[in-house]
UniProtKB/TrEMBL annotation:
It comes from the Archaea. Residues 78-416 form the Tryptophan synthase beta chain-like PALP domain. GO terms for molecular function: L-serine hydro-lyase (adding indole, L-tryptophan-forming) activity; pyridoxal phosphate binding; tryptophan synthase activity. Pfam families: PALP (PF00291). Its EC number is 4.2.1.20. Keywords: Amino-acid biosynthesis, Aromatic amino acid biosynthesis, Lyase, Pyridoxal phosphate, Tryptophan biosynthesis. The keyword Nucleotide-binding does not apply. Its cofactor is pyridoxal 5'-phosphate. PANTHER family: TRYPTOPHAN SYNTHASE, TRYPTOPHAN SYNTHASE-RELATED. This is Tryptophan synthase beta chain. InterPro entries: Trp_synth_b-like (IPR006316), Trp_synth_b_CS (IPR006653), Trp_synth_beta (IPR006654), Trp_synth_beta/beta-like (IPR023026), TrpB-like_PALP (IPR001926), TrpB-like_PALP_sf (IPR036052).
């Protein structure tokens, strides 16, 4: 039996041949990255850690950037386009008149959307002669993706994994090692940044900001090495827009268009990946779609942070980016959604929040695991803790539609499965899960740049 509108087509032509770059369509110019003295960072300076082709994508004002055919072929081989599914059982359980669709990136080999940019970054690095890549990872989705991409393109990979996730998620570490990557807990004794932190606090749980510092320091000290970033920067976000571009074509085949688009936010890559192609329509006056971005209360950069220049890492090795931030020295509580434990947000997403195009919300850890468990029992998929934030917001939007008796269409990004994140579910089911959020956020130490 075929149920109309349950599953969208997944033919090869659904995969786009170009990425979408939001820079030329932003409602205001993107503030340039700066050095601590206020000077603007040049593209040449960025080439110290990134290959030139990615730096060119980072600053490009072209709306559409072609996906190389070799890379597009690999996307197809690894499972793109990914499914767009309708959550009918969830709709029925909620008693909502809303239609709920989700783009499911968990079918990809490493279990999340991260492989979309990992392959692109490895591809361009290989073309320019890079031999080795360093990176950071929180929950391990990004590290797993880059480990696989490195294996596919013959690049060595070292992953600095946030210590609390290294301990909470040993199977993520094993996945990376299986693909051939070296994985070290961060802060580590391998870098000056890591050693300084361990001297002050031997039990430091780590953070994405610390891990980024270590990975960049490593790359700068080794001439055959470049750094790969899993989120935040423009080139990373544009690689992910294949998610939303596919979803648009799939929804069109079903005769649908979303009234609400939802995704979780750590740095912004999975959110931008789904939402930016739809935001393109709204910026051109072709839709009135709502865009909801979800973050944890433990790292509330959009809902409680300030829009100002800050470093992307803890040690202050990156350029200063103008973004929503809770401060690069902030170490978030050790929540299970390790990929969302970041102090800042992508500068392009920050502009969209400032202009009221994207609405940020924040949830507690217990709330998102409750929603994720409900989703698993209705739809059969166990979401990653990061993706569970989007699930919670989608449920809330559906219940709001129920109260108003509105027949809206909701689309959210189920950016990864949670089958390697079961410690969080165990803690939730055993009543051991605890909420945590900062009482006070001090940003007085940040540089005052405009």
């Amino acid at each position: 039996m075929v149920i109309q509108g349950l599953r969208a087509p997944q033919t090869e032509d659904i995969l786009p041949d170009k990425w979408y770059n939001i820079l030329p369509d932003l409602p205001e110019p993107l503030p340039p990255p700066r050095n601590p003295d206020g000077s603007i960072v040049s593209p040449k300076e960025l080439e110290a850690i990134f290959p030139r082709s990615l730096v060119e994508q980072e600053i490009s004002t072209e709306r559409w950037i072609e996906i190389p055919e070799e890379l597009r072929t690999i996307y197809l081989e690894l499972g793109r386009p990914t499914p767009l599914l309708r959550a009918r059982r969830l709709e029925e359980a909620l008693g909502t008149p809303a239609k709920i669709y989700f783009k499911y990136e968990g079918v990809l080999p490493t279990g999340s959307h991260k492989i979309n940019t990992a392959l692109a970054q490895a591809y361009y690095n290989k073309l320019e002669g890079t031999k080795r890549l360093t990176t950071e990872t929180g929950a391990g989705q990004w590290g797993s993706a880059l480990a696989l991409a490195g294996a596919m393109f013959g690049l060595k990979v070292r992953v600095y994994m946030v210590r609390v996730s290294y301990e909470q998620k040993p199977y993520r570490r094993i996945v990376m090692q299986t693909y051939g990557a070296e994985v070290v807990p961060s802060p580590s004794p391998y870098t000056e940044a890591g050693r300084r932190i361990l001297e002050q606090d031997p039990d430091n749980p780590g953070s994405l900001g610390i891990a980024i510092s270590e990975a960049i320091e490593d790359a700068l000290k080794n001439p055959d090495t470049k750094y790969s970033l899993g989120s935040v920067l423009n080139h990373v976000l544009l690689h992910q827009t294949i998610i939303g571009l596919e979803a648009k074509r799939q929804l069109e085949a079903l005769g649908e268009y979303p009234d609400v688009v939802i995704g979780a936010v750590g740095g912004g890559s999975n959110y931008a990946g789904l939402a930016y192609p739809f935001i393109y329509d709204r910026l051109r006056g072709k839709s009135e779609t709502r865009f909801i971005a979800v973050e944890p209360r433990a790292a509330p950069s959009m809902t409680r942070g300030e829009y100002r220049y800050d470093f992307g890492d803890t040690a202050g090795m990156t350029p200063l980016l103008k973004m929503h931030t809770i401060g690069h020295r902030f170490v978030p509580p050790p929540i299970h959604a390790g990929g969302l434990r970041y102090h800042g947000v992508a500068p392009t997403l920050s502009i969209l929040v400032n202009n009221g195009i994207v609405e940020p919300v924040a949830y507690r850890q217990t709330e998102i695991f409750e929603a994720a468990t409900f989703f698993a029992r209705t739809e059969g998929i166990i979401p990653a803790p990061e993706s569970a934030h989007a699930v919670k917001a989608a449920i809330d939007a559906a219940l709001e539609a129920k109260k108003r008796n509105e027949k809206i269409t909701i689309l959210f990004n189920l950016s990864g499965h949670g089958l390697l994140d079961l410690k969080g579910y165990q803690d939730y089911l055993e009543g051991k899960l605890r909420d945590a959020e900062p009482e006070k956020i001090d940003l007085s130490y940040l540089p005052k740049l405009e």
